[in-house]
């Protein structure tokens, strides 16, 4: 099988972003995607049945999330984006985000270390931070939400591809954590609703 672990999916999706970036009529540009995907990402796509032909779903998801994030950040004075299971997402480097925005990636330590090794010499467009955590673990998830929620005035929480790895109760617990630890610090409540809409799209 071409995909052996969760980290493989991040390289796979990054290669799809590289494919789109290299089209003359690309819907978005991610100049970092090919390096992040590496040879492993390309191998996965080549070995998957209809690997290249299936790229449209991930490309569409990327475009939709780009639009949601930029729109919500602009219209609602968001001061923190909390990106759960961030993988190899390069939005803090490639999107036109406010320089004052704080963007926090949360993912497993190995994934964050891999991304940092590729991006350490590229300045982000906003204030970037990475927080290692296993979001499947309820205690680690609560600690992340509690700490970062206390540091944000207006927060947007997004994730792509996390929910398929969680049981229904874990998804519900995550929603309660967002609403409890982060939601009560945002005003009006549309911030939480927009965040949860983004979560549900990814699932």
What is the secondary structure topology, with strand pairs?
Layout lengths: L5 H16 L11 H15 L7 H21 L4 E5 L6 H4 L7 E6 L1 H11 L7 E6 L5 H14 L3 E5 L8 H15 L7 H13 L1
Parallel strand pairs: 1-2, 1-4, 2-3
Helix pairs in contact: 1-2, 1-3, 3-8, 6-7
Explain what this protein looks like in three dimensions:
By secondary structure, the protein is α/β, with parallel strands linked by helices. It has 2 domains: 6-57, no CATH class; 58-202, Vaccinia Virus protein VP39 (Rossmann fold, 3-Layer(aba) Sandwich). It has helices spanning 6-21, 33-47, 55-75, 91-94, 109-119, 138-151, 168-182, 190-202, and strands at residues 80-84, 102-107, 127-132, 155-159. The chain has a 4-stranded parallel sheet, sandwiched between helices. Helix 4 links the parallel strand 1 and strand 2. Helix 1 (6-21) crosses helix 2, helix 1 (6-21) crosses helix 3 and helix 6 packs parallel to helix 7. The longest helix has 21 residues, at 55-75. The protein is globular.
